[in-house]
Recover the amino acids of this structure.
């Protein structure tokens, strides 16, 4: 599969990863809040939120979904669709809600929220793996070109 | 109640996550794996409370929240208190018909670390269980006070080194054994009590759904591998948890109505506990010759406990 095809299929969200987590906006400072505070996760009614996919939701600026922790990463997981069997192991065990799956298909990685822990690579069952860790600045084409061949089982 | 399909992972993955990224838990932290699973088990509205600890400080960094549900944080002791009070309020308003949507199902869940569950919030948790509220308490058991730098708790196993029970020339780490919280909670007569592990995602999802569906107070202890304080590479969180369940250091089982015990995971090949201990920095010192007796003690305790679980399961009492 070409690099473009793989990149295009990733879901784009306008309001994902808009700000650095550190950057506050025009609000009371933590030391000025006297009665505790209430942060609304969404704009407007959120009663059916469990039925909406993230791209259908109206996230408020308070929702950490709109922030990014990409700067935490030194290595990143790269996804190779050609080998993936859509088992969803990576989805269930990603601690940072960063595996984007829709309709039982793995689509790719949310690099705004992925911290590069490498769990998804470890739990990927294919041979060779469909996810591998590369340096943060390695581009997708280079990574895919470097993908290892299928490992033969060692004879005992 | 709208439980979601957990027939297989593909179906499970069609759920829309309600726990968002850009929280500040360490890379590879199992707390969030467990929270995500709970929230993906149901489509119902959730009211969640959290005790102070890694989960709370990392998911509500002002001005951000990572929770797509109602979520409340109060003191270290009070996750059970806060969520049961909310549950009573909801019940009363439902009776009076003053809710925006009187028929919308709502589930009440409290999350606490082992420090807050086994130690500091223990009295409040016990009270909430005894009062019999309809809620589920989930302990994220990483066997130490992780958020404040890894102090020992009554959930820390014997032999682990922690910042307040350090291994050194005169010490092999913590001297006392882990508190058996699951039995204590079962002794409250709670309708559903379990110990679950995120590597066994299906039994965990099933257990969560059972707890959410069961009327009355439910308690679940979950194994939450902590790469920072247990000292292993973040990529290995699931591997370490596999070792925890396959050495039976963390048996996976449930107890219904305070007595009926079911084992939920029976390893095909039970591994010696050394495999689990040697994979983590916090047990490294146990492999010195003078500490060999501690490993032997841990193994013999595991064997005895597993034997007890099997006999209780068989006895159906
Ligand atoms: C009454 C009280 N005592 C102490 C603290 C300090 N404190 C905050 S978090 C924490 C450790 C939490 O440990 P645990 O409950 O195991 O959760 P973990 O961080 O390990 O997930 C401590 C001691 C506090 N907030 N309140
Ligand atoms: S590296 Fe970690 S955070 Fe990133 S996608 Fe994989 S499991 Fe998720
Ligand atoms: S774990 Fe590997 S094979 Fe399974 S869905 Fe993820 S990338 Fe695909
Ligand atoms: S210290 Fe442990 S429990 Fe706390 S966020 Fe880090 S890995 Fe998770
Ligand atoms: Mg803890």
């Amino acid at each position: 599969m070409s690099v473009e095809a793989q990149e295009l299929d990733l879901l784009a969200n306008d309001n994902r990863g808009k700000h650095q987590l550190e950057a506050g906006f025009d609000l009371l400072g933590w030391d000025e809040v006297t009665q505790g505070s209430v942060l609304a996760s969404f704009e407007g009614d959120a009663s059916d939120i469990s039925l909406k996919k993230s791209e259908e939701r109206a996230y408020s600026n308070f929702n950490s979904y709109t922030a990014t922790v990409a700067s935490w990463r030194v290595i990143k997981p790269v996804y190779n669709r050609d080998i993936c069997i859509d088992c969803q192991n990576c989805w269930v065990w990603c601690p940072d809600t960063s595996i984007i799956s829709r309709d039982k298909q793995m689509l790719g990685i949310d690099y705004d929220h992925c911290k590069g822990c490498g769990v998804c690579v470890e739990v990927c069952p294919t041979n060779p793996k469909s996810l591998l860790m590369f340096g943060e600045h390695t581009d997708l084409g280079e990574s895919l070109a470097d993908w290892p061949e299928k490992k033969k089982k060692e004879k005992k | 109640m709208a439980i979601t399909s957990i027939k297989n992972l593909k179906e499970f993955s069609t759920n829309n996550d309600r726990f968002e990224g850009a929280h500040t838990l360490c890379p590879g932290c199992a707390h969030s794996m467990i929270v995500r699973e709970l929230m993906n088990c149901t489509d119902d509205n959730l009211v969640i409370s959290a005790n102070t600890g890694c989960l709370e400080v990392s998911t509500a960094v002002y001005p951000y929240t990572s929770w797509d549900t109602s979520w409340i944080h109060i003191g270290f002791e009070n996750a059970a208190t806060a969520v049961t009070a909310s549950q009573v309020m909801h019940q009363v308003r439902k009776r009076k018909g003053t809710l925006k949507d009187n028929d919308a199902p709502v589930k009440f869940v409290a999350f606490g670390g082992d420090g807050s569950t086994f130690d500091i919030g223990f009295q409040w948790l016990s009270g909430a269980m005894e009062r019999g509220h309809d809620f589920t308490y989930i302990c994220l058991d990483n066997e130490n006070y992780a958020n404040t730098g890894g102090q020992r708790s009554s959930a820390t196993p014997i032999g682990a080194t922690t910042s307040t029970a350090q291994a050194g020339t005169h010490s092999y780490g913590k001297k006392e054994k882990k508190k058996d919280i699951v039995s204590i909670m079962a002794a409250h007569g709670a309708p559903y009590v379990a110990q679950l592990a995120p590597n066994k995602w299906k039994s965990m999802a099933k257990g969560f759904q059972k707890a959410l569906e069961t009327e009355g107070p439910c308690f679940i202890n979950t194994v939450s591998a902590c790469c920072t304080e247990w000292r292993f590479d973040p990529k290995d969180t699931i591997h370490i948890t596999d070792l925890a369940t396959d050495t039976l250091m963390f048996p996976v089982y449930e107890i219904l109505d305070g007595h009926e015990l079911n084992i939920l995971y029976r390893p095909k090949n039970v591994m010696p506990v050394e495999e689990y201990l040697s994979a983590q920095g916090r047990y490294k010192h146990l492999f010195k010759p003078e500490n060999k007796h501690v490993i032997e003690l841990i193994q013999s305790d595991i064997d005895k406990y597993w034997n007890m679980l099997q006999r209780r399961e068989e006895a159906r009492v």
Q: What stands out?
A: Residues 9-315 of chain B form a domain with the Rossmann fold fold (CATH 3.40.50.970). Residues B 25-26, 29, 31, 54, 58, 142, 146-147, 226-229 surround iron/sulfur cluster (ligand 4) (CB under 6 Å). Chain B has a mean pLDDT of 97.
